[in-house]
Amino acid sequence: MDPSRIYTHQLDNGFVFVAEHMEAVSSASFTFLLPAGAKHDPADGLGSAAVLLDWLFRGAGNLDSRQLDSLLDGLGLHRESSVAAEYTVLGGALLGDNLHQALDAYADIIRRPHLPAEQFDLSRQLVLQQLASQDDDPRSKLMVELRKRHFPEPLGRNPLGVPDQLSSLRSSTVADLHQESYLPDRAILAVAGSFDWPKLREKVSSLFAGWSGQPSPEPDLGAAGPKTDHIDQQTAQTQIGIAYDSVPPTHPGYYQACLAVAVLSGGMSGRLFTEVREKRGLCYHVAARHRVLKGRGTVLCYAGTAAERAQQTLEVTLAELKRLPEGITQAELGRAKIGLKASLIMQGESTTARSASAAADYYHLARVRSLDEISDAIDAVRVADLLDHLQQFPPTDFTILSLGSKKLEVPC
Amino acid sequence: MLKFHQAKLDNGLQVVAESSDTARSVAFGFFIRTGGRDELTPEIGLSHFLEHMMFKGTDRRSAHDVNREFDEMGAKYNAFTSNENTVYYGNVLPEFLPRLADLLADMMRPSLRQEDFDMEKKVILEEMAMYEDLPQHDLADKALKTHFGEHALGNPVIGTKQSITELTSVQMHDYFSRRYAAGNMLAVAAGALDFGQFVDLISERCSQWDKLAARRELMPAKPSLGTQTFQKTTLTRQHLLLLSPAPSAQAPDRFAAAILANTVGDETGSRYFWALVEPALADVACCAYQPLDGAGMFMSYFCCDPDQAEKVVKIARAELTRLVQDGITSDELTRSANKTASALTLSSEVPMGRFVSLGMNWQYLQQYRSLAADLDSIRAVTADQVNRLARELTINRTTTVALGPLEKVV
Of A50, A101, B363, B382, which is the most exposed, with the fewest CB atoms less than 10 Å away? Predict the structure, then answer.
């Protein structure tokens, strides 16, 4: 890919706008990252960002809730919005011809939502319900609870909050969060797909130039833990989650870290799938993924299995993690590399994947990497580099959580 | 520039492809016209079990060789089984297409070794337990049984604990030879490819496959429209499914049906959204159109507090009745058509999206449909057509199935 197709523009108020032009597509995708993640929720108002996200769409600018909805649907916009640990994501994908109209609407949603008082309770009730629904999805619940235990407060918070606080949440708390965090400094917009750059730059500049304000400082970090825990719940499968620290995208060993996880779990020939599922038939789903928060990399592993096989599944999985630094073959590294590179090239065919990835790149690195840059960095990694990295950052100091009918013994 | 191609080998294997000048990858795979509805009574779950076993190796490859070779190509690969289709696929960079074709074609003639069969049975039972923990899946299986009764469409694709435990590898060999004949299979590719070379690859590897054709007995489905509640006190939420008959995958009305489902229950801006989600009566309320071979259904799913369940069902049915009686507005038609067209355009921008569309259209219609043709069909749907469909199908007469803490939902 030609790096000149990536554009970056920053407004005087700090708002950053990145765009990647893609040939041969008629769609465009856009992703706003706003500094209103679960970590920005007030300590006594957990879930505020999630309630705000629903409340935002209940009218903005000159449009009431129905008119706004009708406009966005009329544009054929496929919407994506969520609250993550560090930011709120707002965006969607649609035909490139309709992009400017969608951005007009989103400027209103972000900057001029009505936040109607009489509808606050509905937004709050919906988040309470989503939280209750998490109970009926054991894998999601396990991963939410694993993050809570592995990351220091407030990085591991459940973005949906906690029931008690949501029940007493006040509309003024949530409206304040909007005032204090939906601000240009630290906000990012990424666009990928079919667009005309000069026109798009002018459009975005005009929509967001008058925006001003500094969000509150980032919150301090507190404690994490416990390192091992169990949640008692009647389920058909025992859910097992394991987390350990790795390195973030800003670290020189980042690509080594991603490749190490690909050796573990990049495909069906990965070590976890081979040892846990193929050789022993212990489970259907077992996987490890590298995940990043600002300045922090983490590996999250998951396995689900019958209660009577859960202990063995935990032991086999941990043994595979621990033996990773002992040796990796050239063939394993080769497979890990081609797997990551193929994913990248295929990502280059999807506007949705590219806008999300460009926004995340800017968030973590303050620039957007070209696909060529990433590909070259992956190519450069040798087995010796990977092993050096694993000596420095071995899978260790695990946070282990199980959910099911029987507590597991964590092996030494 | 997209171009359609087709060929047929002497043994009946059909080959279809859509080549693209601009794609950076290619998706290739086999569609087999077989699934849950083609199983004999003691074989429930066999199609899906066999799908797992197809990855377990051939005369030339061990199970690990299969996984390793996919990964050596950096392939994004998998398989899925439904009531009517079993599909194996890989998405690779163009230079790997010959190798992918060799691997997938070889896999289509598997060893089905006894020791692999025994090991994989454990994995299938784990997969079943995983779905048991996911109320949406559990409910869908229960609802299909209630809706279709003894018809094969009512069987769970994954099987039951009893059927899987009792299945033998002899039954699997028998099913395989009945269903995986060349005449019942289709090779599909979409993306960056040269069709001449592609046909040569397929021909070289698949020409010796036996010629037998396989038949599907299309027994007419007679949906029950019954009501049933399954109590599961370990659940927190009440999960509800409403099923009603819909046009088949072959019916000209299928585009109108897609627009009808979107108007009723898209995630945003739909009737269900305004009647149930916006007022916080349910956190999920959606409707999907599921076209099938000679049959079809609309499936509405709701997730709510148990104490709201009766109200949610009542409102959902009232919305369906209102639609039958009053029809949709021209504004609703425009919005649903735009959303449907936009979603189709987005999914078609990647080779995997075109691969699935190409294969499914060939399986059900023996027809190539370009993205442009599908977009035209969506835009040609009229409000009258949607309204006639809603009336004729009386979409407000539903099979209603509930799963959750409540003992009974009326």
Answer: B382
Q: Which residues contact B269 (CB under 8 A, 6 or more apart)?
A: A69, A70, A72, A73, B335
Closest Cα of chain B to A226: distance in Å?
26
Residue-wise pLDDT tens digits, A263-316: 999 999 999 999 999 999 999 999 999 999 999 999 999 999 999 999 999 999
Question: What pLDDT band is residue A1 in, cutting at 50, 70 and 90?
Answer: very low
Domain locations in chain B? Answer: 2-206, 227-404
Cβ B345–A95 below 8 Å, yes or no? yes
**pLDDT of A4:** 52
Domain ranges across chain A? 3-208, 228-404
pLDDT class of B218 with cuts at 50, 70, 90:
confident
Average pLDDT, chain A: 96
Question: B392: which residues sit within 8 A by CB, 6+ positions away?
Answer: none
Shortest alpha-carbon distance between residue A148 and chain B (Å)? 21
Asked if the A228-404 domain carries CATH number 3.30.830.10, the reply is: yes
pLDDT grade for B410, boundaries at 50, 70 and 90: confident
Complex ipTM value: 0.95
Do residue A136 and residue B55 have CB atoms under 8 angstroms apart?
no
Contacts of A233 in chain B (CB under 8 A): 234
For residues B208 and B187, give the distance between their C-alpha atoms in angstroms, rounded to a whole number. 15
The 10s digit of each residue's pLDDT in B51-100 is 999 999 999 999 999 999 999 999 999 999 999 999 999 999 999 999 99
Does B339 contact A76 at a Cβ distance shorter than 8 Å?
A: yes
- The beta-strand segments (E) located in B232-379 are 238-245, 284-292, 295-304
The CATH number, out of the four listed (3.20.20.20, 3.40.47.10, 3.40.50.300, 3.30.830.10), of the domain defined by the range A3-208: 3.30.830.10
Assigned token pair, B226 = 């019954």
Contacts B24 to A, Cβ<8 Å: 345-346, 348-349
Chain A environment of B124 (Cβ under 8 Å): 284
Compute the distance between CA of residue B90 and CA of residue B352 in angstroms, rounded to an integer. Answer: 9
Beta carbons of B129 and A306 less than 8 Å apart: yes
B121/B167 Cα distance (integer angstroms): 9
Please give the CATH topology (third level) of the domain spanning B2-206.
Cytochrome Bc1 Complex; Chain A, domain 1 (3.30.830)
Nearest-by-Cβ selection for B130 from A132, A274, A284: A284
Q: How far A218 CA lies from chain B's nearest CA (Å)?
A: 31
The minimal CB distance from B280 to the residues A76, A129, A350 is found for A129
Closest partner residue to A73 among B133, B235, B269, by Cβ?
B269
Q: How many CB pairs under 8 A join A and B?
A: 191
Q: Say whether B227-404 and B2-206 share the same fold.
A: yes
Q: What is the pLDDT of residue B409?
A: 92
Q: B74, A78: Cβ pair inside 8 Å?
A: no
Q: Which residues contact B384 (CB under 8 A, 6 or more apart)?
A: none
Contact B117, B377 (CB under 8 A): no
CATH class of B227-404: alpha beta
Tell me if A3-208 shares its fold with A228-404.
Answer: yes
CA of A266: which chain B residue's CA is closest?
A: B71
Q: Among all residues of chain A, which has the CA nearest to that of B269?
A: A69
Task: Give every CB contact of residue B363 below 8 A, 6+ residues apart in sequence.
Answer: B31, B33, B84, B85, B186
Question: Encoding tokens for residue A180?
Answer: 């204090």
Give the tokens for residue A204: 């975005």
Mean pLDDT in residue range B245-274 = 97
pTM: 0.96
Q: Residue A44, class by beta-carbon neighbours within 10 Å (0-12 exposed, 13-18 middle, 19+ buried)?
A: exposed
Contacts of A234 in chain B (CB under 8 A): 234
pLDDT, residue B1, reads 84
